[in-house]
Amino acid sequence: AASRYRRFLKLCEEWPVDETKRGRDLGAYLRQRSLARLHSNYYKHKYPRPRDTSFSGLCLEEYKLILSTDTLDEFKEMNKGMWKKLQEKFAPGDPEEKHKPWARALSCPRT
What we know:
Pfam family, one: UQCC2_CBP6
Radius of gyration: 29 Å
Distance between the termini: 53 Å
Organism: Muntiacus reevesi (Reeves' muntjac)
Region (Disordered): 90-111
Structural class: mainly alpha
Number of strands: 0
Protein name: Mitochondrial nucleoid factor 1
Main location: mitochondrion
């Protein structure tokens, strides 16, 4: 859709509207007809796609699920290492607890 709109804008630049021919200007007519066709998905219906999948074989609903914020957050959580997960789980939230021996031991990474 974006490429069709860019082509529409290019057409508008190449064929300016002649203000002296209000209501009968070919440039204005082409603009209106082209924009109406883009808006109504004329070409999507005229040339339907045989399948609603991409190279990966996933459909639109599967892409929406994968790219949702919740799913991406889960992927970030899965990519964290075990040590980082333990640190976050047991790290003290209170500044006073940071001085306890177990909190200092967790905050120092092992080499």
